[in-house]
Amino acid sequence: MKLVLDTFALLKWLLEEKGYEEIETHFRENQVLMSSISFDEAFYMFLKKGFKKEAYTLWINRGTLPIRFFEPTWKRIKEAALIKASYPLSYADAFCVALAIEMEAPVLTGDPGFKKVKEIELLWIEG
């Protein structure tokens, strides 16, 4: 099964927070997809919290993660803008939703902001 990882889930997994084992199981059992914009949001959040070394380690090692990244095409940019205009999501989360719709895949998250989006299925991470 394909699923789309959001920033919340990536950070939970990287920081080994409660529920990260469930995310690891999804990495083993599914094809995990992610918008490069969502990945960049995780990088930015590490920097914002003062985790500069960890942020750059994540950036350098992004190719070793069990994730298939998708770049923003013009079509994806337009779809993300339409989603952002319709829901109170971050810009990165709008790209996550756009990718999930395009790939017809659920979003792996624990971020309550996604619950309002009617066009996607959620795989909820308890934490």
Describe the secondary structure blueprint for this structure.
Elements: E1 2-5, H1 7-14, H2 20-29, E2 31-35, H3 36-48, H4 52-60, E3 68-70, H5 74-86, H6 91-103, E4 107-109, E5 122-124
Parallel strand pairs: 1-2, 1-4, 2-3, 4-5
Helix pairs in contact: 1-2, 1-3, 3-4, 3-6, 5-6
Short structural description:
The protein has 127 residues and is of the alpha/beta class.
CATH superfamily placement: 5'-nuclease
Helix content: 40-55%
- Counting structural domains, the number is 1
Oligomer: single chain
Structural class, by secondary structure, is: alpha/beta
Give the strand order of the largest sheet, numbering strands 1, 2, ... along the chain.
3-2-1-4-5
- Helix count from the secondary structure assignment: 6
Distance between the termini: 23 Å
Instruction: Please give the largest β-sheet.
Output: 5 strands, parallel
Low-confidence stretches: none
- Outline type: globular
Radius of gyration: 14 Å
Care to count the β-strands? 5
What's the CATH architecture?
3-Layer(aba) Sandwich
How large a portion of the residues is in β-strands, by DSSP E?
A: 5-15%
Question: And the CATH topology?
Answer: Rossmann fold
Assigned CATH class: Alpha Beta
